[in-house]
């Protein structure tokens, strides 16, 4: 499809021809008090904000206990078939070994021959999606996932339960630092970046809030460290 | 969607009688200020945060042409295809062509006010392409063929029994229920299948970042994330004013948007696209089209006051703040945009002639201006629309008043400048005017001023003016009051 340059030039031309007016001076950027929080306070606030959105947060001292916690979660929610991403955190967790021990059928996106069979499984087969996260943000209890071949989009979206593994050192105070890391100068562009703060929700019927509208009904976060 | 802005008074009268809507709005009214203020108080300095957000919007609008160019360049460099549309027809034609070229049978749509503005659903449907609104509120509004009641909660006013009825009729569920959660689950199950086999997803855009060529969507349900993850083709529509300078600006506006919109620090999901998926990714769109729609905006961009309307970030706070909206709800406004933001935007997009009641249905209380995170001065704009309308402004399609009304106002303006003219005029016109008096009030004067009395009345003219009463005062009276001038029979003490 060709670009429609005439239309574009006509619209932009009209905008450019308009008198611009004087550029208003920006006031000072409001202070971001979160930047002065101690590490432990950052973790506390991150947990507090996430729990407020009904996420369940488990804090584990290392990846070994994180795997044990994952087993408990799998037992509690009777998980038999799960889909996981293959990002660095999930690799560190050694999920293959965990799944064998816990008796869970574990799948990765690469186990599927094509997009359609992967989609069939993520929509109809997987009982939970397990992912690492690239960043976490204390100011609002937000998980940030930078999607790529190891971090497919639907794993944290289509299954009814999303389990996210978050090393504490990935928690940052505010969005701006995460944005600098993801979108900063000389960084290769990422096609898709997601902020997740709690399970999918709505209040569209008479203002009654409930979770699990289209995406996960449960968000479980395993904090490591 | 059909423009029904000219039926404002009629629909408002009907809606005022809707007991359920009134009860809901009264309830929201009782809690909404406290919720928004609590959310804003999570800023360390709420006033500074508000001022900074307004400054970003002011700058974004002023720098719009250069920011749009930068956005286009960066987005294209990431592999997105940026297409421009002068008006609704061009925008709809582009989407239709993209769908037809790909043999698309149905699309899902995230909640997007611009697609309501351009009437995309009707065009796709007329051409055999099914559209499923995927935001729960829009989904319900679409089934009931209603316009959005509120830009954030499009069907928040619909009673559960009515939702149950339409869900049963359309086979969305089999067993009746009035539990909102169960109704939501039925919609989830129905739309999940659509997401699963989706080939083309349509979304709006909350912000388009010039610095990085990124589009950002803010939502709670996840339907937009599905539209960006499951299909091979993603089409995202935006109007000119969605562009913001930098990612950091977008982050600050995100904080303000969510706090003012739903009293959240942040919504459940924020998704940001810089181009389509990479070749080695298993999901996400293989092609990303971004359609930039003008639809009349560049025409009034040259008017520095009118362009202020473009600052709006669609948080919807002004609606729940408006004493008029909170009595009549969103339907009387008759189009995609309702409440104060609609009253500001619709006259510019549709013309002052077609939106007569919109910019007049305002008490000028200023609440919308006070809370607006974008810094729009709504009351000032309404006054300017009223003036432009009376003057018959050609660009904005002002209606102009009849020559009789204009002449009467001219005469009045001339008359009130000198006391003798006023006194003479008052004496001469009194009998003619008081012919219409009813119980001491003028409720209608046939002819010239008819419209004026639709929502107002005026005391009838006194038989004697104040000066006449003062001059003719009986000096023997000490109490400054004469009983025979008290028609109600009130006695002086």
UniProtKB/TrEMBL annotation, chain A:
Transmembrane segments: none annotated. This is LUD domain-containing protein. SUPFAM superfamilies: NagB/RpiA/CoA transferase-like. It comes from Candidatus Abyssobacteria bacterium SURF_17. It comes from the Bacteria. Pfam families: LUD_dom. PANTHER family: LACTATE UTILIZATION PROTEIN C. Residues 43-224 form the LUD domain.
UniProtKB/TrEMBL annotation, chain B:
The keyword 4Fe-4S applies. InterPro entries: 4Fe4S_Fe-S-bd, 4Fe4S_Fe_S_CS, FTHF_cligase-like_sf, Helical_ferredxn, LUD_dom, LutB/LldF, NagB/RpiA_transferase-like. Keywords: 4Fe-4S, Electron transport, Iron, Iron-sulfur, Metal-binding, Repeat, Transport. Pfam families: Fer4_8, LUD_dom. Residues 467-493 are annotated as: Disordered. The keyword Iron applies. One of its GO terms (biological process) is lactate metabolic process. Residues 302-331, 352-382 form the 4Fe-4S ferredoxin-type domain. GO terms for molecular function: 4 iron, 4 sulfur cluster binding; metal ion binding. This is Lactate utilization protein.
